[in-house]
Amino acid sequence: MNAGELLSLCKRRGFIWPSFEIYGGVAGMYDYGPLGTNLKDNIISLWRKAYRQGEGFVEIDSETVNPEPVFKASGHIDEFSDFVVYCLGCKEPFRADHLVGDLHPNPDTLSADELKSLFVENGVQCPDCEGDLGDVEEFNLMFKTNIGPGSSRAGYLRPETAQGIFVNFPHLYRYNREKLPLGVIQHGRGYRNEISPRQGMIRLREFNMMEVELFVDPDDKTWPRYDRVKGRDLRLIPEDGSERTLTLEEAVAQGIIANEVLAYFIWVTKRLLEDLGVDCSKLRFRQHLKDEMAHYAMDCWDAEVLLSYGWTEVVGIADRGCWDLSQHSKWSKQEMTHFKRFDEPREVERTVLKAKYRQLGPLFKGDAKEIASMIEACGPQDIKDGEILLEFKGEVIPISSDLFEVVDVREKVSGEKVVPHVIEPSHGLDRIFYTILEHAYRREDDYTVLSLKPQVAPIKVGVFPLMSRDGLDAKALQVYDLLSEEGIEAYYDDSGSIGKRYARMDEVGTPWCVTVDYETLEDERGLQDTVTVRDRDSSEQRRIPIPELVNVVKELLKGRDFASL
RNA sequence: GCGGACGUAGUGUAGCUGGUUAUCACUUGAGCUUGCCAAGCUUAGAACUCGGGUUCAAAUCCCGGCGUCCGCACCA
Q1: A466 Cβ within 7 A of any nucleic strand B atom
Q2: N or C: which end of chain A has fewer CB within 10 A?
Q3: A502 touches strand B (CB under 7 A)
Q4: pLDDT digit string (tens) for A253-276?
């Protein structure tokens, strides 16, 4: 199949539309039409069910515009922007820090001006044409804005929803009554100012993600339900590039997947994608290479699906370690730890330094309190030649031994503070959406069927009168109302031939069609109030009494086989 | 961002050596018909990517913008 055919169908039938098309469109931006919105919501529902009901995670919804410090801390300001320099001769763009690799030990720490002066001092020329280089420009992949009037408070559109969860960790931790593990999910939009989006809705500038952040004890990366699934197979491509199929248990035992909890959520991801309608023969999990890994990740596996564009990442399952919480703790000066209680409180003997306030006061006046706490933050190992050196307000001041005393204390310690580690399955919703459509797309002799899973199908039931006369249409409208009132997404159609109406529903993936025919109205044969239900994939029909229709559809939606009716 | 190709109703297309009421099919609406898988008849609606230039005259030729596709680069 080719992507153009499918995109054309999507546009024609109201799944997705290029945004702002009347103004010429904007690359990398799409709007969801009515059917697309339904399908997208259905994907979100199944994801939510897997994590909220399936694993007991909680869901939040945080801001898309974030103040600058959030991304200073997360590393996106620094890691997410490149300095670009254009050759004045051939106009080629270059990564500025790559051109001074030999001239500086740490070029990616330099500012634009520093890079520029390095070029000038060393006469760096364009590597392609030897031409002169222009000014160094910063290119950050985040959309920048201002919060409030003026430019005093810089803000950015979030490049991932994850930070909204991390910055709320203190609230979430208290909400969870200070216990780990703590699983939090969030879906929403993220924004990346791509240089040149390509491949339809695979690379977008504004995109939807479904992110899961699981906070765990760094010393306990096991999972209660792991044992139930550890014998299941996964198709893996580890770092060495060799593809193999292993059970979860084998992969963990061989050290290919770092830990049980990561393996478990790779499995959850596989099951979810399968439930959504991803073709499992076109699904694999690939481990990131060391140099491919994001700045925050310790280990990362991508769920990749085979599309007409080639193998494409749809979910990233990363062990982010303690990076995010440590960073936010450092920048915000807030505690971002879990208090891990010991089974029994322990008596610990420690040697500590105690400040002598009586002497410090007259000596340091207003600064005494702060200096005292710095002294007490030191240990005996910091004493050199009878004094300790403190760095205070830019100066190094010696603290002689008469300003503190060394004492042995016995303390009762009931636990320790640890920074939780984060396991993050992060789903690209738009890519999953597209994958589901591509994997469901069937075409034979100009006849198109989307074999969507009933649970994600935007319309569940088409309702038709066989003829639009003799009261069949009125009866069909009653059936339509009956289904709609039960929350079943139905679609009434009385135009053209019956075959055409089936075809229209097949093309948008509607799994079943209900037809009100003359037998519905007959009573001498005892068939009164029955309708035919037609199955999309087999074209088979069953007669069902109208009073049972709602329950039959609900059972089918739960996965009952049509042939068993 | 660079190079190449392309841009005509909702979709797919014809016209593109300048002058047409801009072709055809499907789709869509209305009416008739229709007894279960895109049937038929009548009828209606619907397009030259945008801007500038050349010309008496531009869908057609030229330049630029925007967009799409393919390579290169980028891809947290």
Answers
A1: yes
A2: N
A3: yes
A4: 999 999 999 999 999 999 999 999
